[in-house]
Amino acid sequence: MRLTEKSQVTIPKFIRDRLGIGPGSEVEFVDDGDIVRLVRKFGNETPADRRRRLTARIDELADQVDIGANSVDDYMAELRGGRDDFDAR
């Protein structure tokens, strides 16, 4: 990707679609060290609306992740399992 003479770039369509942005949408650039993130601004979104949106996104991502445990209790039991490698000196 290359900047124009006016320091502009074209945001690829798949990213515009993913963010749900188009002409007139407000976006924000977030400086994160060596990385700059493009973030859609949500205008006058209330905290409750933001919470609902983020919860829906977390649920969507959770369906894509398998930590190999059926519940928090199963996961904790796995973490606390036998310590055969523990040296009790």
In terms of topology, how is this protein built?
Layout: H1 13-19, E1 27-32, E2 35-40, H2 47-62, H3 72-79
Antiparallel strand pairs: 1-2
Task: Give a verbal description of the structure.
This protein has three helices and two strands. The longest helix has 16 residues. It has two domains: 41 residues, Pemi-like Protein 1, Chain: D; 37 residues, no CATH class. With 89 residues, the protein is an alpha+beta fold. The chain is elongated and about 65 Å long. β1 and β2 form a beta hairpin. The chain has a two-stranded antiparallel ribbon with strand order 1-2.
Concise overview:
35% of the residues lie in helices and 13% in strands. It is an alpha+beta fold and 89 residues long. The chain folds into two domains: 1-41, Pemi-like Protein 1, Chain: D (Ribbon), CATH 2.10.260; 44-80, no CATH class.
Largest sheet: 2 strands, antiparallel
| Total beta-strand segments | 2
* Basic shape: elongated
Number of domains: 2
What's the architecture of the largest domain in CATH terms?
Answer: Ribbon
Query: Unreliable runs, pLDDT <50, ≥5 residues?
Result: none
H-E order: HEEHH
Q: How confident is the prediction overall: mean pLDDT?
A: 81
Cα radius of gyration in angstroms:
22 Å
The quaternary structure here is single chain
CATH uppermost class of the largest domain: Mainly Beta
Proportion of residues in helical segments: 25-40%
The portion of residues forming beta strands comes to: 5-15%
> Within the largest sheet, what's the order of strands?
1-2
Structural class: alpha+beta
What is the number of helices?
A: 3
N-C termini distance: 59 Å
CATH T-level topology of the largest domain: Pemi-like Protein 1, Chain: D
